[in-house]
Write a sequence for this structure.
């Protein structure tokens, strides 16, 4: 007899799910790093606005708002990260349960019909697997909802960056410098948007 | 394909050997599993690894109702001994696993929960199986630092884990040792390398020599019976162990 093949069959699709979690996690890490950059950029913008004085009062207000946005974004991403690390546990549970169910099924098949206790063992295994799959689906839904919420927040960030660009035009002799800062904001926020779009398309479980 | 062989029977008291799997993949070490059946209960000794679970389960089911399994005896913590634990528990969640206290918090990495494990203290203990008393006999450092063998005084069988193991050629599927001198050549390298303590070995040989043993059943290789049991003990007592290369 060769090594029992069936156990490998159950695992293949689930390893795909683990790979998806890794991709989700990588996107989250990228956004967290970008949010940290926005925070620093906003701090610099606040100092720049102070130096520009009255001509950059509006830009200063927007920079403060952008800094608050960066902090909110970091919090959102931390909660997303928590969800994905929770989903690693759930996916692993499903993988283990599937592997065990498949090997046990192979054992029962080899043993022929009518092994005492076989039906109960199958029922228990199926119930546990279903329970873990429900948990994983619910996590997936929560993750999707959280990504949508974060996308709305980032829309607000985009609005702030556009307004900062307009305010920069009124910055007098600091106008060019303020314009450069606001352009940087807009680029970074666009980058976050792209990452969130990728995140929004990822699913922890197949539909 | 593994098959269960009845190596002892006295009314409702049986020992089954699920031994010598000629069809398993070559990259997995061959293992023997033993089942002690007494009355309404059964105890599985060193159930083996995950990969061979289907073969062991079906062999056991062919000879014995698997729902009668009350426990698992794990001589030590190695994967070829007990990595199938989660699967046995999947079939029967209330199984008890008897193992050295040393591995009580390690084996849950293979499966089970706190209530699964019955820690065996260093001096050993009695394991009851539907009225039958089996003795968990210390064999520490042979080879694992927390290691037990299982003695059945009624059947006069000693399950000796890795002691007595022989890495036999693929074409040798004898259940019992046929020619001790030829057989022991396949055990020498294994014992020299895997058994780490000469002091532990001498102590084990002295203790085991005082037991009445008709069969010494190891986890790898063929079963020693009759005079070959004492022959093996004498051979082991004289062997230099803890040797990196012979």
């Amino acid at each position: 007899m060769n090594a029992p093949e069936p156990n490998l069959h159950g695992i293949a699709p689930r390893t795909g799910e683990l790979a998806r979690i890794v991709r989700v996690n990588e996107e989250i890490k990228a956004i967290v790093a970008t949010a940290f950059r926005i925070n620093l950029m906003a701090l610099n913008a606040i100092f720049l606005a102070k130096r520009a004085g009255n001509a950059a009062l509006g830009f200063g207000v927007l920079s403060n708002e952008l800094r608050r946005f960066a902090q909110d974004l970091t919090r959102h991403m931390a909660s997303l990260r928590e969800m994905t690390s929770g989903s690693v546990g759930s996916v692993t549970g499903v993988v283990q349960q599937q592997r065990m169910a498949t090997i046990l099924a192979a054992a029962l098949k080899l043993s022929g019909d009518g092994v005492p206790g076989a039906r109960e063992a199958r029922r228990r295994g199926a119930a546990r697997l279903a329970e873990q799959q429900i948990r994983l689906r619910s996590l997936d839904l929560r993750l999707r909802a959280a990504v949508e919420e974060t996308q709305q927040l980032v829309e607000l960030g985009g609005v702030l960056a556009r307004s900062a660009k307009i305010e920069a035009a009124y910055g007098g002799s600091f106008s060019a410098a303020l314009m450069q800062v606001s352009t940087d904001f807009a680029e970074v926020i666009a980058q976050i948007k792209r990452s969130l779009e990728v995140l929004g398309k990822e699913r922890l479980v197949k539909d | 394909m593994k098959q269960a062989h009845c190596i002892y029977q006295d009314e409702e008291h049986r020992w089954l050997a699920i031994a010598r799997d000629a069809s398993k993949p070559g990259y997995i070490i061959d293992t023997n599993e033993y089942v002690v059946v007494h009355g309404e209960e059964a105890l599985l000794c060193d159930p083996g690894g995950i990969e061979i679970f289907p073969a062991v389960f079906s062999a056991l089911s062919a000879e014995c109702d698997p729902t009668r399994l009350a426990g698992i005896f794990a001589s030590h913590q190695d994967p070829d001994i007990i990595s199938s634990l989660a699967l046995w528990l999947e079939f029967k969640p209330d199984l008890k696993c008897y193992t050295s206290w040393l591995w009580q918090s390690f084996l849950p990495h293979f499966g089970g929960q706190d209530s699964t494990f019955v820690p065996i203290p260093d001096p050993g203990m009695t394991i009851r199986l539907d009225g039958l008393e089996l003795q968990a006999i210390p064999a520490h450092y042979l080879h694992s630092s927390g290691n037990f063998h299982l003695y059945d005084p009624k059947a006069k069988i000693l399950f000796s884990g890795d002691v007595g193991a022989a890495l036999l050629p693929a074409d040798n599927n004898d259940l019992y040792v046929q020619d001790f001198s030829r057989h022991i050549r396949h055990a020498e390298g294994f014992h020299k390398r895997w058994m780490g303590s000469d002091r532990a070995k001498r102590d084990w040989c002295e203790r085991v020599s005082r037991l009445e043993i008709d069969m010494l059943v190891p986890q790898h290789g063929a079963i020693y019976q009759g005079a070959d049991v004492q022959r093996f003990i004498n051979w082991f007592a004289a062997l230099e162990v803890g040797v990196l290369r012979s």
User: Anything to note?
Assistant: Chain B has one domain: 3-238. The longest strand of chain B covers residues 3-10. Chain B has a mean pLDDT of 95. DSSP finds six helices and 13 strands in chain B.
